[in-house]
Amino acid sequence: MLDDLAPDEDVQLSKHLLSRIHGCEARLVAEEASPEPFTVTVPIARGTIAHKAVELGIHWPGEPLPLALVDEAMASLARTDHWLTDFLNTCSEADRAELRSAAGDRVAKFFECFPRLEPKWRPVTESTQIVDLVGGRVRLRGKVDLTLGVARGSTAGKVVIDLKTGAPNAAHRDDLRFYALLDTIRVGIPPRLVASFYLDLGESRTEAVTEGLLDATVARTVDAARRLAALRTGAVEPVFRPSYACRWCIARPTCAVGQAWLADEAEATGDLADQSDPT
After folding, report:
1. Lower Cβ count inside 10 Å, N or C end of the chain?
2. Cβ of 209: how many Cβ atoms within 10 Å?
C-alpha cells in the first residue's frame, strides 16, 4: 500500500470513508475531484446539533429539556471554529427554526428512551478514537456517540453505542465494528458489546464483539486503505457499484452505469418519483 503513496502523503480512514470505499468507488473519485464546495443544509446539520445537545444533556446538572439543549448546542457551535459555525451564523430564521425543530425531535426521543445515566455507569459522549499505524502513515479515526462501562483488567466491559435515525442499515453495523477495532487496538481490550440505537424506532440492535468480528473488520479496513491509496494515485480504475445512492450522486449526469441502473429500477418498480438528493 505504501508504494502507492508519495513520500509526504498519509492515509486517514474514518467510518464514512470506509463506507464510501466499499460502496461505489467511481462516486468517491468523482466527489474528491469535484471543485464544488461543500454546502451545509438543515438535514446535514441536524444530526450534529442533535448529537451535541444529547452530549450536553447527559452531563446537564438539571432536567434535560430538549429544546433548551438544542439552543445551547447551536450557540456553542456558533462560537467555535466548527464546520457548522458559518452556517449557524448566517442561516435564515426559517432554516434556524427548522433545524431547531428537527434536532429537538431527536433529542426528545433520546431522553424518552434512555434512563438518566448514572456516573457509576461511566458514560462517555463524543469520544474521539485515534490509532496510528505504519509509523504514522496510516491513521484510523472515529468518534463514538456514547460508551458505557469499562474493561476490568483483561475482562471486556465496555458497551459502544451509536445513535441513529431512520431505518436500520447494514452499514451501521460496519461502523460499530470499526469502532470496536479502534478501541481494541487503543486500550488492548475489546468492548463487550456494540449497539445501534434507533431513535425513531425506540429500539437497539446489538452485536457481541468476538475475535471473528475483529478479524473481519481488520481485513475490511486493510482492503479499504489499499484501495484508497491506489485510487488516489490512479494505479487502479474505480469500481462502479450502482445503487439507490446513484439518485443523488454528483457524477450521475455523466455516469452511464448509474443512469442505466436507475432506469432499470424505475422500469422494474414503476418508481418514477423525483430522484433529487434527499438532503
Report:
1. C
2. 24
What is the average per-residue pLDDT within 24-53? 91
What mean pLDDT is predicted for residues 134-147? 92
On average, the pLDDT of the chain sits at 91
pLDDT at 136 over 80: yes
- Could you tell me the CA-to-CA distances from 185 to 130, 178, 188 in Å, in that order? 10, 11, 5
How confident is the model over 2-16, as pLDDT tens digits?
666 667 778 899 999
Q: How far is 103 from 71, CA to CA, in rounded Å?
A: 10
DSSP structure string for 88-139: HHHS-HHHHHHHHHHHHHHHHHHHHHSPPPPGGG--EEEEEEEEEEGGGTEE
For residues 190 and 180, the answer to whether their CB atoms sit within 8 Å is: yes
DSSP code for 194: E
Place of cell 443544509: 41
Residues forming CATH 3.90.320.10 domain(s) in the chain:
119-231
CATH 3.30.750.24 for domain 119-231, yes or no, is no
d(CA 262, CA 268): 10
